[in-house]
Amino acid sequence: DVKVTQSSRYLVKRTGEKVFLECVQDMDHENMFWYRQDPGLGLRLIYFSYDVKMKEKGDIPEGYSVSREKKERFSLILESASTNQTSMYLCASWGGVGTYEQYFGPGTRLTVT
Amino acid sequence: GIQVEQSPPDLILQEGANSTLRCNFSDSVNNLQWFHQNPWGQLINLFYIPSGTKQNGRLSATTVATERYSLLYISSSQTTDSGVYFCAVGTNAGKSTFGDGTTLTVKP
């Protein structure tokens, strides 16, 4: 079974802090994604990566950056956390053609105070 | 971009009842998945179904790609089926657009 793990289930940070959210998958998937989920707004794509060191902006990249130095790890970085970044963050991976399902991690609920 | 509409937004059932959830999408897609989000926020894969019909126990799904909709059937519902059901569609390498979900509550 595909396993996608995220570094924290719950995280509380202060405004202005730099925040790292880590995601690791164990199935050698090429494609990884970061979404955020907010009540009334559903799941929205922040960034995705098709390969190591490659990244593309999703629908709401402002205020975020990402890093993919190794195939199994995809990090989401909040350069200077703000209260409007309080949300549930979900990481996903996808293996490409022949492995069509996207698998999600358990999520990180981030609160910025 | 693709628009995804799910209906109904909310559904309340008695245990043992059957239900049908619908997902309409605005353009041709080459991937479609149904997910169940449990109370802890985890998204669980139910079906990958860009076309055709699949069944897994009490759940089944049908996608009619030419008419741009998919249906998720839940039979003999149980309290553990409660949660939010999402439809996600996409045309490019795993990048998906999600519907707003259907919140299902199954009462004992």
Give a topology summary.
The complex is a heterodimer of chains A (113) and B (108).
Chain A: E1 4-6, E2 10-13, E3 19-25, E4 31-38, E5 42-49, E6 56-57, E7 64-70, E8 73-78, E9 87-96, E10 99-104, E11 108-112
Parallel strand pairs in A: 2-11
Antiparallel strand pairs in A: 1-3, 3-8, 4-5, 4-9, 5-6, 7-8, 9-10, 9-11
Chain B: E1 4-7, E2 10-14, E3 19-25, E4 31-37, E5 43-48, E6 52-56, E7 59-64, E8 69-74, E9 83-92, E10 95-98, E11 102-107
Parallel strand pairs in B: 2-11
Antiparallel strand pairs in B: 1-3, 3-8, 4-5, 4-9, 6-7, 7-8, 9-10, 9-11
Total helical segments of chain A? 0
Structural class of chain B: mainly beta
Helix content of chain A: under 10%
Largest interface: A-B, 23 and 20 residues
Specify the structural class of chain A: mainly beta
Characterize the overall form of chain B.
globular
Sheet with most strands of chain A: 7 strands, mixed
Radius of gyration of chain A: 13 Å
Say what oligomer this is: heterodimer
Beta-strand proportion of chain A: over 45%
Q: What is the overall pLDDT average of chain A?
A: 92
- DSSP helical segment count of chain B: 0
Quick one: biggest sheet of chain B? 6 strands, mixed
Computed Rg of chain B: 13 Å
- Please, what is the average pLDDT of chain B? 93
How widely separated are the two ends of chain A? 37 Å
Order of helices and strands of chain A: EEEEEEEEEEE
Which parts of chain A are unreliable, with pLDDT below 50 for 5 consecutive residues or more?
Answer: none
* Element-level helix/strand string of chain B: EEEEEEEEEEE
